[in-house]
Design a protein that fits this description.
There is one protein chain. The protein has about 150 residues and is α+β, with helices and mostly antiparallel strands. The protein is about 20% helix and about 40% strand. Strand 5 (about 125-135) and strand 6 (about 135-150) form a beta hairpin.
């Protein structure tokens, strides 16, 4: 299998690959990328994130939908990195979610490792298997599809 690569995996690289910005950027760093195959992103969960004000006061838990979004953003970064110049003027849109499971709460102070692996790609649609892990334990997983579209 191809060796993993990361090109400037810090937040600047993430922001170069994704159009998302605070407060909706759910990936802080790309830890590993194998173009066209798989990637690992990292999310540091902090108490000052806006969703914790209401989810839930006194018992902060990261919403599961944001874990799914973190998987989708990690996959989007992989698509953009894999296709390079072919992505100029294009975006990656979330299309579908299958088999989403939330196994354990994610709380402020946790570091989420976001693993995504391409299941297959057909022209403009890429299907992924994703998993979020905290301390090596799976906290959420899903199968999802993304589509490449032209920017408006």
């Amino acid at each position: 299998p191809p060796a993993p690569t990361v090109k400037h995996g810090d937040i600047a690289r993430v922001m170069a690959l994704l159009p998302h910005r605070y407060p909706f950027l759910m990936v802080d760093r790309m830890v590993e990328m194998v173009p066209g195959e798989r990637a690992v992103g990292l999310k540091n969960v902090t108490a000052n994130e806006p969703h914790f004000q209401g989810h839930f006061p006194g018992e902060p838990i990261m919403p599961g939908v944001l874990l799914i979004e973190a998987m989708a953003q990690t996959a989007g970064a992989l698509v953009v990195d894999s296709l390079g110049e072919a992505m100029h003027g294009k975006l990656v849109y979330f299309m579908s979610i299958e088999d989403a499971r939330f196994r354990q709460p994610v709380r402020p102070g946790d570091q989420v490792m976001i693993h995504v692996e391409k299941v297959h790609a057909r022209k403009l649609a890429w299907k992924f298997r994703g998993e979020c892990r905290v301390d090596g334990r799976t906290v959420a997983d899903a199968v999802f599809t993304a589509m490449i579209v032209d920017r408006r």
